[in-house]
Amino acid sequence: MFRLFLVPFIFLLVGLVVQETNGQYYKKVGNKIFPFSTIVVDQSGNGHFSTIQSAIDSIPFYNTNWVAIRVKAGIYRASPRRKSCDPTEQILHYIGRGLGKRKTIVEWYDPDGPERSPTFSILADNIHVRCMSFRNSYNNPINGNRKLRAVATTVSGDKVNFFRVAFYGYQDTLYDANGRHYYKLCTIQGAVDFIFGAGQSLFERCSISVIGGGFITAQGRESPNDTNGFVFKDCHIFGNANTYLGRPWRPYARVLFYKTNMTKIVEPSGWDSWSPDGREDLSTYAEYGNFGPGADTSKRVSWAKKLDLSTVENMANLNFINTPEEWINYQPF
Fold first, then answer.
1. Domain carrying residue 118
2. What is the tens place of the pLDDT at every residue in 200-246?
């Protein structure tokens, strides 16, 4: 079994070159991009480190090499984070790869709000995470706790990419705070405002799992000139309780659901105003091309927007988050 793994690994090194693009160093074989170096995390002691935090801390500030942190299977009970040391820092590292959403799990138990409770925090730029799960278990029904804000992941860095990652919680599961982010084939679970923040983010082919009555999004756009907003493209909304698609955390909240499968759990009115103050028209809540029993827009709130096709296509496009650098093209997958 060891030999079967080793042979293709050696083969991949043939023709390998070190390449630099936009100040970022990685290895390239043909058209494929690979990390410059790899760190292994294994709780059993068969890796470079036994905790994710130790692996993250080993990467120096101002690092310009893509570093892969490969996390072996297991439940890691910790709250790893990496802070940027100043606004100009470019930390380039590739978190994961885990062995799958159900095999590599990072868990924390804390209800202390979005700044202090996250199971996992990303405060630096240029991060790629794949094939693992982050869970804040405080609101798990078996604990019998009063439901409080308990964040599974905070994302404040720019140019952050998640692939086949799961986020589990109840209230405020995913704090998509700031920056440009791409979530593909991810699972986000929760009940109340469980995707919230002022990120400029595209959620593509993601599963939105509702486990209690509430609101999927609470978007935080504060100005009509802000470029941020949430776009859900080709997603699936399902669960065991009725839900609203969103409510505005800030007055100019912007959310688009595009070609998404909406089951009957979506409330007919679609959106909630949070606290009616006559400013509902400032928000941009839109739907386009959705399907399923929850996608009927005939009873939606009067202040839901009908965007023109050009605007919809611009938002539901990778360029919504990828320009001008086309940064996703230069992340080693």
1. 33-155
2. 999 999 999 999 999 999 999 999 999 999 999 999 999 999 999 99
**Does 214 lie in the same domain as 111?**
no
Task: Work out the pLDDT band at 28, boundaries 50, 70, 90.
Answer: low
Domain boundary among 155, 176, 211: 155
Q: How far apart are CA 182 and CA 202, in angstroms?
A: 5
Q: Could you please report the per-residue DSSP string of 107-169?
A: EE---SHHHH--SEEE-SSSEEEEEEEEEE-TT-GGG-PPP----SEEE-SSSEEEEEEEEE-
- How would you class 293 by CB atoms within 10 Å of its CB: exposed for 0-12, middle for 13-18, buried for 19 or more? exposed
Residues with active-site annotation: 193
> Would you state the pLDDT for residue 129?
93
Question: Is the bond preceding 279 in cis, omega lying within 30 degrees of 0?
Answer: no
* Cα-to-chain-centroid distance, residue 227: 18
pLDDT bin (cut points 50, 70, 90) of residue 7 is very low
pTM, two decimals, is 0.88
Please tell me whether residues 143 and 215 are part of one structural domain.
no
In a domain, 331, yes or no: no
- Boundary-marking domain end, from 133, 155, 177: 155
The two three-digit tokens of residue 147, written as one number: 């439901």
How many domains in the chain?
2
What CATH number did the domain enclosing 88 receive? 2.160.20.10
User: Is 200 found in the same domain as 296?
Assistant: yes
319-330 mean pLDDT: 91
Instruction: Clarify whether residues 147 and 206 are in a common domain.
Output: no
Task: Sort strands 32-34 and 24-29 into parallel, antiparallel or unpaired.
Answer: antiparallel
Q: In this predicted structure, what is the pLDDT of residue 276?
A: 80
